[in-house]
Amino acid sequence: MPWIKFLHIATLVCWCGVLIYLPALLLSSARTREVSSFDVPASDVLRFLFTHVATPFALLAIMSGTLLFIVAQLTGGWLVLKLVAVSGMVVCHALCGWLIVRLERGRRRGLMPASAGIATLVSLLMLTVVLLVLSKPFD
């Protein structure tokens, strides 16, 4: 079971890192309207990070968490609240994908406040998950 817990924590940390970075990169891409000095457009980098980094880590984190839940037979009110917070993180993940598509289509209106809102919300949700796991308040 320790390897499942390690896998879950490692993939969750990677997913959370990318989930914070995506809105920041979206915010940066929404601000710059001129051509970047990079060879690759920002939307291509965003799409790659979303599809090849964030999504696989999210799936691995959720699958390993589910396996940990089954193997360790975890129960408690804290777990329900944690799953609600993780569901919110999944919604933020999907919203990042939606904003990437909007950026690719040139629809920059509302992109900056939406990116900032997602970054704030996902940070609060991550903090909630950490606090619930460490304190297990309704155990």
From TrEMBL:
<feature type="transmembrane region" description="Helical">
    <location>
        <begin position="6"/>
        <end position="27"/>
    </location>
</feature>
<keyword id="KW-0349">Heme</keyword>
<keyword id="KW-0560">Oxidoreductase</keyword>
<keyword id="KW-1003">Cell membrane</keyword>
<dbReference type="GO" id="GO:0046872">
    <property type="term" value="F:metal ion binding"/>
</dbReference>
<feature type="transmembrane region" description="Helical">
    <location>
        <begin position="48"/>
        <end position="72"/>
    </location>
</feature>
<comment type="similarity">
    <text>Belongs to the HemJ family.</text>
</comment>
<comment type="function">
    <text>Catalyzes the oxidation of protoporphyrinogen IX to protoporphyrin IX.</text>
</comment>
<feature type="transmembrane region" description="Helical">
    <location>
        <begin position="78"/>
        <end position="101"/>
    </location>
</feature>
<dbReference type="GO" id="GO:0005886">
    <property type="term" value="C:plasma membrane"/>
</dbReference>
<keyword id="KW-0812">Transmembrane</keyword>
<dbReference type="GO" id="GO:0070818">
    <property type="term" value="F:protoporphyrinogen oxidase activity"/>
</dbReference>
<keyword id="KW-0472">Membrane</keyword>
<keyword id="KW-1133">Transmembrane helix</keyword>
<feature type="transmembrane region" description="Helical">
    <location>
        <begin position="113"/>
        <end position="134"/>
    </location>
</feature>
<comment type="pathway">
    <text>Porphyrin-containing compound metabolism; protoporphyrin-IX biosynthesis; protoporphyrin-IX from protoporphyrinogen-IX: step 1/1.</text>
</comment>
<protein>
    <recommendedName>
        <fullName>Protoporphyrinogen IX oxidase</fullName>
        <ecNumber>1.3.99.-</ecNumber>
    </recommendedName>
</protein>
<keyword id="KW-0479">Metal-binding</keyword>
<dbReference type="Pfam" id="PF03653">
    <property type="entry name" value="UPF0093"/>
</dbReference>
<dbReference type="InterPro" id="IPR005265">
    <property type="entry name" value="HemJ-like"/>
</dbReference>
<keyword id="KW-0408">Iron</keyword>
<dbReference type="GO" id="GO:0006782">
    <property type="term" value="P:protoporphyrinogen IX biosynthetic process"/>
</dbReference>
